[in-house]
Amino acid sequence: MTVSLNNYYGKQLHKHQESLQYIQKQINRIVWFRFLSFLIGLVISYFLINKFGWSLIWVSLPFIALFLLLVKKHEELKWLKSYYANRVVICEMEFKSLEGDQSLFDDGNAFIDPAHPYSSDMDLFGPNSICQYLNRSISSGGKIKLANALSTVGNKEIIEKKQHAIKELSERPEWRHDFRANGMMMGDDEADKDELVKWLKGSDLFYKKNFFELAAIILPILVLLSLILSFWIIPVRIPILFILLQLGIVGIFLRKINQQHVNISRKHDLIRQFGKLLSKIEYLQARSDLLIEWRSKLVKEDFSSEKEINKLSNLLRLFDNRLNMIAGFVLNGLFMWDIQCLIRMEKWKNRNKGNFITWLHVLEEYDALSSLANYAFNNPEFIYPDLAQEKHQYVFEGIAHPLIPPAERIANDFSINGEGQMTIVTGSNMAGKSTFLRSLGVNLILAMAGAPVCAKKFVFYPVQLFSNMRVGDDLSNRESTFYAELKRLKQIIEKTKSTELFILLDEILKGTNSNDKLTGSIALIRQLVLTDSVGVIATHDLALGKLEEELADKVRNFNFEVEIKNEEFHFDYKLKEGICKVLNATELMRKMGLKV
In 3D, which of 92, 8, 127 has the Cα closest to residue 377? Predict the structure, then answer.
């Protein structure tokens, strides 16, 4: 299947490279035409003025118009160049991902939380993590929503809706890559988004204040009329007086206007791109309920999000004319420009500030789902799991860890039926116990996010996952490994009193002596089988396997075995019933040159 994916991305890469080359040739031509139109217009204007005065200057106007048209065309081509460059980058990044290199993608390091019920043990965030494997987000909010999807438990209805939405988007790679290429032009949008939201939530300066709304209409009219009349009737000091009056009004509020401008300055390109992304969602002919539900929040009878966002983008661009000191002085003197722009922008804000947050939420949801859909597309052999009808029904056939390359995966079958079931997995070092636990955990996380899983059959019951596999000491709080693990186990026990859990434990009570470890482990398992939770416990301690005799209806034994032939270890990484018979620690020590 990797071959067909390589073929798909190869064709896409070739197509977009050709488009990029074609756009660059067009840009080169436009640059020359623009220069020539400017030069010809300048020469003709100079000749006409010298020969005939200003009477025939209109003859050069077509060349000026052509120059401005070419400037606009050049800007459009620059945008297309960036777009196709992004399409090329997307294909190149996906090629690397298929080869196992995820380093180009954000690893979600900011979401690492050692106190989370399972994220650290399951390598959800950080280098070479599940998040880095999945993440194709183009917005900071999309990354947050993806992290939340991996970190929380959804109910059955939400999970099924997400499955249908992810499946639909996975079948639309062109839409996803178009969406992603447009989104990449926003860059790091978090700071800009925060400033825009701050402006939206802030109070108005001029809107619905009669003095300013009337002054913004009447004073510019008086300025223009007085300027015209100053050529024939009234003295020139009259328009100058009106100009100074407008500049004075703007000057009085200049500090507050500047504060407003700081939050929204130079964001018209970001807003325009935001509008393009919303239009991609608006025009997507969605079939799944969740995508339709979110899309419906963008389009209503009287407006669409894309059109409203474009209005704001244009207003921001006009407001940014004040950045040019000369233009700002002239515009404020003639039209009270800053106040005019802010009145119109505040009017937009009052009409749309609630909508804007909703639109942002919808975009981020689509963004997060697109990451999961990309993962589904890149792993067509993975399946969408079925949800169990009853509590704690789990059937895992051919389950493996999705981050292990396909050629190296060893799949296993496993099932759990009913509450209070505890499975003890014994085995030697490096036999595959921890990988098996992580395979269960990671696939459960993906299943509860609505994504496909690495298995041939997967039936599960949505439940809170809780693990204890990688607890270490905490020097900042002067906590030993043993104490940190006791705290974690206490958390699990307390949690089982109010919530059903799927528990994954790797080597209980690692930080104490063998007798205490065995006694404590047995006591913990006896306590867990009385709860409504289920669990899988990996251990080297074969004595724990005797609990199956005492609690036959609640405890089962499985193992990962190793063969030692001619002082060489042979692992098959296959889960088998019963207790492990061969351990390898002493043999490993001998191989390391240690006397045993």
Answer: 8
Domain count, the chain: 3
Q: Does 455 share its domain with 343?
A: no
Give the CATH number of the domain where residue 404 resides.
3.40.50.300
Asked, for residue 117, whether it belongs to a domain, the answer is no
Helix (H) or strand (E) holding 256: helix 254-264
Co-location of 360 and 418 in the same domain: no
Q: Is the pLDDT of residue 93 over 50?
A: yes
Distances from the Cα of 583 to the Cαs of 247, 474, 538, 555, 577, in angstroms? 87, 31, 14, 22, 16
Residue reference for tokens 């992304």: 277
The span from the CA of 562 to the CA of 98, in Å, is: 31
For residue range 103-138, list pLDDT tens digits in order. 999 999 999 998 899 999 999 999 999 999 999 999
- Among residues 529, 501, 521, 499, which one has the least CA distance to residue 421? 529
- Helix (H) / strand (E) element for 357: namely helix 337-378
- Tell me, yes or no, whether 408 and 555 share the same domain: yes
Which tens digit of pLDDT belongs to each residue from 222-272? 999 998 888 888 888 898 999 999 999 999 999 999 988 888 877 888 888
Indicate whether 400 and 278 sit together in one domain.
no
Q: Rounded to two decimals, what is the model's pTM?
A: 0.88
